[in-house]
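step: validate -> pass
step: tokenize input -> pass
step: predict -> running
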Amino acid sequence: MSTRYFTDREFGQRPAVSETIDDRVWGALHALIEMRVDSGAFGYRFTEQCADGDGPCGSDRRAFARFLEAEVPGIDWPLNSQEVPETPIALDLLEFCAKAVGEPVLGSYHSYQHHHHMSWDRAAGLAIFVADVNLLFQRNGIAFELDANGHAQRILPQPVVQTLGWAMFRTGDDQLDRLLEYARSHFLSPKLDDRRDAVEKLWDAFERVKTLEPGADKKVQADALLDRAAVSGSKMRVALGDEAKALTTIGNNLRIRHSEVSQEMIERSEQLDWLFVRMFSFVRLLLVSSGRSG
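step: predict -> pass
step: emit ->
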């Protein structure tokens, strides 16, 4: 059955631009989780045993609550539909639930205890849970989703998606490959601090790229690299030199590669997106021009 509503079909899906789970979405997530507690879906991981010793019969609510509070600090059980947690905490909660969920399969009915004995279809339960969460996010323009394994990830703006489409790193320098892959993978994180770390590693990769060409010192090496990207003396070569200087200045003045009190913190997600795309595109140009794109 299609999960697309009339407005999705007629006008397109709402842009995924919000990085905050608001009270409306939280209320629905709260209900979604409570429904699965009641149905016994979390018994896949937190299994309640029949008091008569006849096998599994649902979710062990006490075990669920104790593990939840220990694994996701910042969440108290029972959940409060009126108290919206910080978005990273809510995403941790969803990942916790995704690890525990399975679709209940009802077995024999135990009339004395008034319950069914159960088993769980893990794949079906996880897929349904992921689909339900992602529908709520999509309908409300939330820029996160759960992947098929139940891991939260950010939905990237289109310019970032296009930039990261070039994501295989075989530059011939193992350390540079590791820096680039770290930057790429961590920039997908829902957490802003992870993305700041990704930008830092990308600037570190830029500094390392400058030293890959032969030369007596870093400036000579950097100039040789730029000469491979554009003809020496051309307007494009001048523009690329100016861009390299500008990016170096940005890395020194903002809190990217250094943490002195004079450096300014990058506070907003869209600012990180802009910086990441700008630097990643420039590094890509240098690598492709020098035959290091893999």
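step: describe -> The longest helix spans residues 269-289.
step: cleanup -> pass
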